[in-house]
Amino acid sequence: MILATWNVNSLNVRLPHVLDWLNAHQPDVLCLQETKQEDSKFPYQALADIGYHAIHSGQKTYNGVAIISRHPIEEATHGIIGLEDEQKRLISATIQGIRIICAYIPNGQSVDSDKYQYKLKWLASLTRHLRDELALHPKLALLGDYNIAPEDRDVHDPKAWEGQILVSEPERDAFKALSSLGLHDAFRLFDQPESSFSWWDYRMAGFRRNLGMRIDHILVSTPLVSSCTSSWIDKAPRKLERPSDHTPVVLDLKN
DNA sequence: ATGGCATAGCGTCTATGA
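ok -> structure tokens follow
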């Protein structure tokens, strides 16, 4: 079974890349973030034409999350229980007996911003929500754009970024709180190349110079760990014309 | 290095991203 996550930075622009990627890799599940479109614009038919079901929770201009699956999608829910939130950042479903949660965690903008407080509050609510989900679904995967680089090795220049957004201590503590629930960073279950990143700034030739961050993650619950066989970042879509600034993160699970 | 880019909206600029 192949699970993947990809922040597409507008599905309207990136649909051709997504369809090509689905056809090439045939993942069982692909989670998308930043679709930036209302549900009425979501390309259900184009996905069905290549054999995929989908659910979407979106809005104009900002945010928007989707789960795309080759298998039937069951028990779909939107948002975080107990959090009033206009922003469409979380969607969940059960697929092949695994609870799949697709999240677009707030960026936070800067540590002195109101958006940073919203990010920390959102993460606290997510952790509370995940505790309940895990009680119901021992096999669970949380996939998405976390907007957190968990360790210095996930940052191209840790000194330059020290204390800043995406790496600040409260954000990393929130990531550790998710880990403490029994969720494991699937990418780090395996040996990986140094300087492995999932996002590169469009500016400053960030991708060519590999000035990136690893902020897109797949966390899996303890009962799934022994099934994980490999995890990798697919840099190929970042090399295409008009790429997303993020690229897919992939996890292989044995059946 | 604090921008230089990309996207969407009802727009000729602003907001946001990370």
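The mean pLDDT of chain A is 97.
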